[in-house]
Amino acid sequence: MNITVYLAASMGGDQMYVYEAKTLGKWIGENGHRLIYGGSKIGLMGILADSVLEHGGEVIGIEPAFFLKNNMQHDGLTQMIVTDTIEERRTKMIEMGDAFIAFPGGTGTLEEISEVISQKKLGRTEKPAAILNIEGFYDPLRAMLEKMVEEGFLDKNDLKKVFFAKNVESAAWHIEHATGLNRRKR
Length: 186
Prior knowledge:
Largest sheet: 7 strands, parallel
Shape: globular
Order of helices and strands: EHEHEHEHEHEHHEHH
Mean pLDDT: 93
Number of strands: 7
Number of helices: 9
Strand content: 15-25%
Low-confidence stretches: none
Radius of gyration: 16 Å
Distance between the termini: 17 Å
Strand order of the largest sheet: 4-3-2-1-5-6-7
Helix content: 40-55%
């Protein structure tokens, strides 16, 4: 299964993010999944990619050409796809993913998972999505989505299409159950 993960090219301010990135990489690699991500060698992106590769998984990076000029790309990946624009990158990451995970990150990560939420709301994808809410990082986003429901801008059923996971284990459980993978393992 292709797991698209959105996360930062920075480390964040808590070592828990590094630990969870390594844990997510281990789960992806050891379970024979393939990581689809932004292609960077730095920050949490690099940590995750290295962990997947270390645990026997494949990694496909998708990076816009202008990032290559800054030498941000991870050179040890299974495959690197270069797009002309950030918008093409975002589209390709959605197309290639069988499931989506948003790690704590910045505005780029928020933009990417918001696109997935919108695609789910519009019925353009039924693929599972999990927001990795490490130590409550995404509590403000959950509150904002709940406010949208309260104010009539979002249907409560649409809110149920995105799973807020407290850790990698619960995100993995959600994806395995939503895709039926847990039944195939038996």
